[in-house]
Amino acid sequence: MNHYDLVIKNAEIITAADHFRGDIAVCEGKIVAIAESLTETGNTRVIDAAGRRVTPGGVDAHCHLDQASLDGSVGADDFFTGTRSAACGGTTTVLPFAMQFKGQSLSDAVADYHRRAGGKACVDYSFHLIITDATPEVIAEIPQMVAQGYTSFKIYMTYDALKLSDSHILDVLEATRLSGAMAMIHAENDDCISWLTQRLKQQGKTAPRYHAQAHSAIGEREATHRAISLAELVDVPVLLVHVSSRAAIEQIHWARGQGINIFSETCPQYLFLTAEDLGIDDDFHGAKCICSPPPRDADSQQAVWTALANGTFSIFSSDHCPFNYDATGKLLHGEGASFDKVPNGIAGLETRLPLLMSEGVLQGRISPQRFVELTSTAPARLYGLYPRKGTIAVGSDADLVVWDCETPRVISNDELHSAADFTPYQGKTVNAWPAVTISGGKIVWQDQKFSGRAGEGVFLPAKAPFMRPGAV
Ligand code: URP
Ligand code: ZN
Ligand code: ZN
């Protein structure tokens, strides 16, 4: 008889393609058998998942952990607290960013982030690189980085310290084309943002809510179209990150209709928050929801739901970038500082999957298979981690979530596991939460308790992104 370390019995197994009832056996961190019925041996741990959905562990392809800042702010989560919160919310693989400082080589940037992550991560991780300085030397480094397992590169069209000119973007895109890597683009028109910011401040409009006006959907639409055009010019696929508005979605839809191979991502904040969450004039607490692009309006929320359901979006990530509501983070320049001085970003690693399972799957907006595709399979494929990650198959890592979709839960930051001192979803009721999260065959979350350990997560060198049109 085969020995199994763990058997999950009577599961409603959901992959991006299928839904069937069966047992899953795990040995030495891998899935070793899937069958209608499997027999445990004496010392096998058994989880009875009768009536419960079991999905692959989530792959969160966009989060910022212990990322160095350029303005003196300090992110709330390091690799321990961030990956702990990931595990408690059903995410078993994270892809944070290694950011290059201007003048720094990509290999030095990567070495720095390995130091930050080493011995701390509770779940497996891979890195995207942020290119802020596209010099010829840095462009020449891209093929070496790809060969070493860093196959995705984020570039910014805005933020003074990060943005690249169109011509530098073209240089990066040409390099990703030649090395088979993925470029991720933050698409907002920087001049529109600075022009609007200046006008708003001249009128004394400095409260957090004016962030949403400065980062207009028109500026996002223009930059999205420009990013698509630059990718078309170089003839290379790109992935547009954190898309927030109907106007930007329409550009992606148009591009795909033209046969331009564009991938795109959206995030929970564009489904569950609006610009109204940035508050009123005399309320600085709206700073808690400042992120870029900002949450929009009910019409854009609806467009984001539609694009999740109809396949326009390829992936659903958190863009977890938590800052505390104190002088290290949101209050870096004091309560009452102008909106453009507030660090951008919100927490979301732990709540990403429960929010989408509850409001997407249980409310009938997307199918369970599409949930798995958006949150696990497609990010694993697009960032070169499939089939080790992103599915339930013999030979894949035993990263699994057993879902409790019967117990309503009111989200409260006291019960979350990030080090952030607030969640933008405080008080929201969800009807789904992981009952058990298994990472590499080990139970890391069960009975509302975290049981993982720092250092149990390993670095995953990424293979080439899978970028054929329509493949994800
Ligand atoms: O506001 C956001 N999204 N902060 C994180 C940085 C980024 O651009 O993804
Ligand atoms: Zn961004
Ligand atoms: Zn981000």
Instruction: Give the name of the CATH architecture of one domain.
Output: Alpha-Beta Barrel
CATH hierarchy class name of one domain? Alpha Beta
* Shape, principal axes of CA atoms: globular
What radius of gyration results from the CA coordinates? 21 Å
CATH topology term of one domain: TIM Barrel
Largest sheet: 9 strands, mixed
Protein structure class: alpha/beta
Q: What is the beta-strand fraction?
A: 15-25%
**Residue-averaged pLDDT:** 97
How far apart, in Å, are the first and last alpha carbons?
Answer: 38 Å
Count of alpha/pi helices:
12
Report the uncertain regions: none
CATH superfamily of one domain: Metal-dependent hydrolases
Count of strand segments? 20
Share of helix, binned: 25-40%
Bound molecules: N-(aminocarbonyl)-beta-alanine, zinc ion
Describe this protein with a few key phrases.
binds zinc ion; alpha/beta; single chain; TIM Barrel; 12 helices; 472 residues; globular
Concise account of the structure shown:
This protein is of the alpha/beta class.
Structure characterization notes:
It is a single chain. The chain has a domain at 58-374: TIM Barrel (Alpha-Beta Barrel), CATH 3.20.20.140. Helices cover 29% and strands 20% of the residues. The protein has helices at 79-88, 106-117, 136-147, 166-179, 190-202, 210-214, 217-234, 246-257, 269-272, 298-309, 352-361, 368-382; strands at 6-14, 19-27, 30-35, 45-48, 53-56, 58-63, 91-99, 124-125, 128-130, 152-156, 182-186, 238-240, 262-266, 315-316, 400-404, 409-410, 429-430, 433-439, 442-446, 449-450. The strands form 3 sheets. Strands 1, 2, 3, 4, 5, 15, 18, 19 and 20 form a 9-stranded mixed beta sheet that branches. The longest helix is centred in the middle third of the chain and has 18 residues, at 217-234. It is globular. Bound molecules: N-(aminocarbonyl)-beta-alanine (URP) and zinc ion (2 copies).
